[in-house]
Amino acid sequence: MGRREAGVSDTWVALEPGADPAKRSAALRRAYDAYLTAGRVELPVRPEVADSWRRSARARVSPEGLAGVELDGDDLGAYRDAHALARVMPVIRELTGAYARDGEHLVAVCDAHGRLLWVEGPPATLARADTMNFVPGARWAETAAGTNAPGTAIAVGRPVQVFAAEHFRRDVQSWTCAAAPIHDPATGRVLGAVDITGGDRLAHPHSLAFVGAVARAAESQLALLTPPAPDPCARLTALGRDEALLTAGGRRLRLSRRHSEILTVLAGRPEGIGGDELLVELYEDERVTPVTLRAELSRLRRLLGPDVLRSRPYRLAMPVEADFDTVTRRLAAGALTGALGAYAGPLLPQSQAPAVTRLRDRLGDGLRAALIARGDPALLADWAYSAWGGEDLPVWRALAAALPRAQRAAALARVAALDAWQRA
Length: 424
Hints:
The protein has helices at about 20-40, 45-60, 75-80, 90-105, 125-130, 140-145, 150-155, 205-225, 255-265, 275-280, 290-305, 325-330, 335-340, 355-375, 375-385, 395-400, 410-424, and strands at about 105-110, 115-120, 160-165, 175-185, 190-200, 235, 245-250, 250-255, 310, 315, 320. By secondary structure, the chain is an alpha+beta fold. It folds into three domains: about 20-225, Beta-Lactamase (2-Layer Sandwich); about 235-320, Winged helix-like DNA-binding domain superfamily/Winged helix DNA-binding domain (Arc Repressor Mutant, subunit A, Orthogonal Bundle), CATH 1.10.10; about 325-424.
């Protein structure tokens, strides 16, 4: 009986109650082989897993590959000590310690790039995980390691559970894991994820709920450690998301796509902009009338409040700190690592508004050019293995050239595949 036939609606849970783990694992192995050989998705593969397999395949992840270790020694220690999640590790350890010990599970925390920062648990389980490079400093982003709980949780922005042959890489298919993203409570940006990895017993709704609760507790602790201070400046978060977040006056608003575009334009024009010019900046279709724009602005004024959005010319009554402006400033100052760290993805990726398209391209092209010019393999890898950089051939070429000869094989293979794909 299939999952939907069984009446279970939460397909983020790997096994519905009463399912036999051994039988499900065998069925998944057959479905996995069918996908690799014929590109066909069969039951009992969950839709979320099928989507992740497709993303893994598009990213040219090898089913036989091994996660790469990018940080170790002093570099790893310095990076994670400075990471925001270091402040909540005591809470994560307190909540997960007994759970991990009693179940012989591992607890792992990764950054927003899927790079493992902490992996803790019983020595015997750690030794087993070491054979697949599930170790601190290794990159487990979905675009680098295929379907896996921490990498996929970051990719989709919600708690996920991955069971047995749902993993894209064969060497991980004897494991089950559940992970949840951890967000910055002030900006909503993903900081990383917390993961629990172990055996079949983790394929249970309780483990998914548990890891989600741990992530929420970590976010609450972050909020307590950095209490919001009165700030006359509004904050706009629009990188890597189609619906921007605006934090202002103690409120946090999720904006519609059109309102996100309007705020993006107004944030860059503190002196204001006339209605005719704003119309041109927002709409590709020249047939759109000023009446349509005024209706959108009226709805936005009701959402923000009459004292926030002003007219004649259209402008915001308070300064706006936008995440894309932060990237621009850091890049202009030569702080490339900081600029890349603040870059959560393309600006409003689905927007076709002329002003947004120009700014998105200028920001992405500037970062890419700076990365290639710097030639730092770690920074190039952060871009190449990101959701937006997986098919960026110039960056992959630069990464292959920057890596030590012994570590170039995977990058050269990706360059060859991308080059062949673009020529086809």
